[in-house]
Automatic annotation (TrEMBL):
Residue ranges constituting the Alginate lyase domain according to the UniProt record: 55-281
UniProt KW keywords: Lyase, Periplasm, Signal
InterPro entries (UniProt xref): Alginate_lyase_dom, Chondroitin_lyas, Hepar_II_III_C
Heparinase II/III-like C-terminal domain location: 369-570
Protein name: Heparinase II/III family protein
Cellular compartments annotated: Periplasm
Residues annotated as signal peptide: 1-15
Organism of this sequence: Alishewanella maricola
Pfam family of the protein (one): Alginate_lyase
Length: 724
């Protein structure tokens, strides 16, 4: 249910400082806590020691010059973080040395800022530049932190210093990011979120209620943009962020920070109840979108980002403060960071009391789009043979950071990525690598369909690589269900290619008698005319074996194609398996073997590739894949099973079950029932998947002269055995 925030009278009385994320009441409790042993006092002592070292250095506010990763860029980032930290230490210690340092740095900025034009290293003319930074996004991040630092020391400053800092620095920055760049400020996008948060918080600190209204509802106060519109449109009803986990993590901080400031200044707006508690849902969903501490790396994601990122540290602290759910303490314990705030104090004290309980990671389908009906991001999980997860992506395009990867998937096992996604082609803030920006290969390879684990038609990416077209179309999630048999899902899209329908059914199937899970994958392609169909699978590990002969290039390599990402793939080998089972096995660094078994008709060619062709600056990682190719086909079923097995232990020098145990694989359909029979480790099973629209229960069917009943979407039957 939406909670309407319109027609609420703006705040009329200037609150006592600090008045944003931290209140005077919080400060009082925190001052008591730092005098007692515990996580909070340790976090304070650690931060104070860091700040003391930095305060011993002279203030450096350089004239902006460099792009991301360059010296001046990084110095201005260090400065806003140092001002924030020193402000916190001042509030808790009441030592004016820290307030004076923040004052002096703000005055240095107040002297510099009026002299600045737009940044000399601005990215492109189409992107709004900053003045201190090469893009206005970083300017907004600077303001979000700096306005809090100013709030912390406000009461320690003279009226003259406050006037100079506000008129020469903070107000000009706020106006530059709002009225000076309406296209960004009013935009429903993470850049707009940071801008509205910074300007709105500045409004609370400097008693500018009009700024707050514009931050909430856009510059015209129309409600077509602004912070509330971003809460409505950027998140699904379940709290999934349109651009994917990596940018959900990044955008979370301004959402959490500004929401907390709204609650502290205008509790009558009931911001944490807005849209059925969407802020809390967004925090929890961000945690769910991770495996072994790292976020699922879809879209433009840097794969090293995880739940210990500072944005989620703030988010988890807020979530625990709102709910006191002990599972959030488990995540906070893993993050191993205590923020110095009222919410952080609650987390620290609860952890000191040992109140943490294991956070529950779920098998779940997160609807995409503001209505939750623009596809979904599906997570299937199993603990049967170690911590396993399948990520299936029948999700929306994800705006400009989205990839052309409809119906792709990834697999994780024993803490490692097994079937992988490239993520973003970027070395964040490494200036030598294209100024730390997204590399050209992000467009030419990482976003292209062939860099993912989904069907490519005629070596052309989905939507012909057009983001605007992609944003207009999304897959349809037909169903998702989880049960003791495992998890199963199906989705389709008819618009990725003209005249081509793509359908994919995936299941993470539990086989408790064998103490293992397998991944079943059935990809159906139906087209109006014949096409070349490619289905890549990108894997992490060392190729061990295939059960079919390969013709391998050992002295000279050529690229697999000329465009749409194919130009970046070296063709290293190829093979044409005979009709039956085609097996590819590899060993992952987690010490487990993986065999991908395909049911082939003798017409599927396997092409083995490595990334790195047409890459003169060595920007791409040299990862491996194999591509199943079918020529001149109007209809094809790609059917496969991924089987984890065995163990390799080099330290103790033993190897167990290095070969696949799957010996038979069959596929058939009875009306809307998909039936797969397998023999694995000497045991035979029938996997039945109910594809009907309504998912009827207790459906009877016959198989090999035996009667069976499927209740729900997925069932596993032991063949020639009375037990189900």
């Amino acid at each position: 249910m939406l909670v309407t925030l319109a027609f609420i009278l703006p705040f009329a009385v200037q609150a006592a400082h600090p008045n944003l994320v931290i209140t005077p009441a919080d400060v009082s409790e925190m001052r008591k806590a730092i005098s007692k042993p515990g996580r909070f006092s340790k976090a304070y002592s650690d931060l104070k020691s860091q700040v003391d070292l930095q305060l011993a250095q002279p203030i450096n506010v350089p004239v902006p010059k460099d792009g991301g990763g360059g010296f001046t860029h990084e110095q201005h980032k260090k400065n806003y973080q140092l001002m924030y930290n020193a402000g916190i230490v001042y509030q808790l210690s009441q030592d004016k040395t820290y307030a004076n340092y923040v004052r002096d740095m703000l005055l240095a900025y107040a002297k510099l800022y009026p002299t600045l034009d737009v940044h000399p290293a601005r990215k492109v003319e189409s992107q709004n530049p900053g003045k201190l930074f090469w893009q206005s996004l970083n300017e907004a991040v600077w303001l979000v932190h700096t306005i809090q630092a100013y709030d912390f020391v406000h009461s320690a400053l003279s009226a003259q210093d406050r006037k100079r800092i506000e008129t020469k620095l903070l107000k000009p920055v706020a106006l530059f990011l709002s009225e000076g760049q309406p296209s960004t400020f009013n935009k429903v996008h993470n850049h707009g979120t940071w801008a509205t948060a910074g300007v709105g918080m500045a409004g609370y600190v400097m008693n500018e209620p009009e700024w707050v209204e514009k931050a909430l509802y856009d510059l015209e106060k129309s409600g077509k943009g602004g912070f509330l519109k971003q809460l409505e449109e950027l998140f699904s009803p379940q709290g999934y962020y349109n651009e994917g986990p990596y940018y959900q993590r990044y955008a979370l901080l301004p959402f959490v920070t500004f929401a907390k400031a709204i609650e502290n200044n205008e509790p009558q707006r009931k911001i944490f109840q807005y849209r059925d508690g969407i802020v809390l849902k967004a925090i929890d969903t961000t945690v769910q979108l991770s495996y072994d501490g790292l976020f699922f790396p879809i879209n433009d994601a840097i794969k090293s980002k995880g739940i210990d990122t500072i944005e989620l540290v703030h988010g988890v602290a807020l979530a625990y403060s709102l709910t006191e759910a002990p599972g959030y303490l488990d995540i906070a314990k893993q993050q191993d960071q205590i923020i110095l705030s009222g919410d952080g104090l609650k987390v620290a004290q609860a952890l000191d009391k040992g109140l943490a309980e294991a956070y529950q990671f779920d098998a779940v389908a997160f609807g995409d789009g503001s209505d939750g009906k623009q596809g979904a991001l599906v997570i299937m999980r199993s603990q049967l043979a170690g911590d396993q997860a399948v990520l299936f992506k029948p999700a929306a395009q994800g705006l400009g950071h989205g990839h052309f990867d409809k119906l792709t998937w990834q697999f994780y096992d024993l803490g490692k990525e097994i079937v992988s996604d490239y993520g973003a082609a970027r070395f964040l803030n490494v200036e030598a690598k294209f100024g730390g920006r997204y590399l050209p290969e992000n467009e030419s390879y990482a976003k292209q369909t062939v860099s993912h684990n989904t069907v490519v038609v005629d070596e052309t990416s989905h939507f012909n690589g057009d983001v605007e077209v992609g944003n207009q179309h999304s897959p349809v999630l037909n169903y998702f269900e989880t049960s003791p048999f495992g998890s199963v899902t199906r989705a389709h899209i008819d618009t990725a290619y003209q005249g081509v329908q793509l359908k994919r059914t995936m299941a993470l199937v539990n086989l408790p008698e064998l103490k293992k899970s397998i991944v079943l994958d059935v990809f159906d392609v139906v087209a109006e005319k014949a096409h070349q169909l490619d289905l890549p699978l990108h894997y992490q590990g060392q190729l061990i074996d295939t059960n079919f002969e390969l013709s391998v290039s050992t002295q000279q390599l050529s690229a697999l194609g000329t465009k749409n990402g194919y130009q970046h793939l070296w063709l290293k080998g190829r093979g044409l398996p005979k009709q039956g089972l085609a097996k590819v096995s590899w060993l992952n660094e987690n010490g487990r073997f993986y065999t991908h078994t395909s049911l082939v008709d003798g017409q599927e060619e396997f092409l083995f590739t490595q990334i790195g062709a047409n890459d003169p600056h060595f920007n791409l990682r040299n990862e491996q894949a194999f591509v199943r190719r079918v020529e001149n086909s109007k209809q094809h079923h790609f059917i496969s099973v991924l089987e984890p097995h065995g163990e390799y232990n080099p330290s103790e020098e033993y190897t167990l079950d290095a070969e696949s145990q799957l010996t038979e694989l069959g596929y058939s359909q009875q009306d809307e029932l998909l039936l797969v029979d397998i023999t694995i480790a000497g045991k035979s099973y029938l996997i039945a998947i109910n594809q009907t629209a309504e998912g009827s229960v207790n459906q009877q069917f016959q198989y090999q002269h035996q009667s069976y009943v499927i209740n729900g979407r997925l069932a596993v039957f032991a063949l020639n055995d009375d037990e189900e």
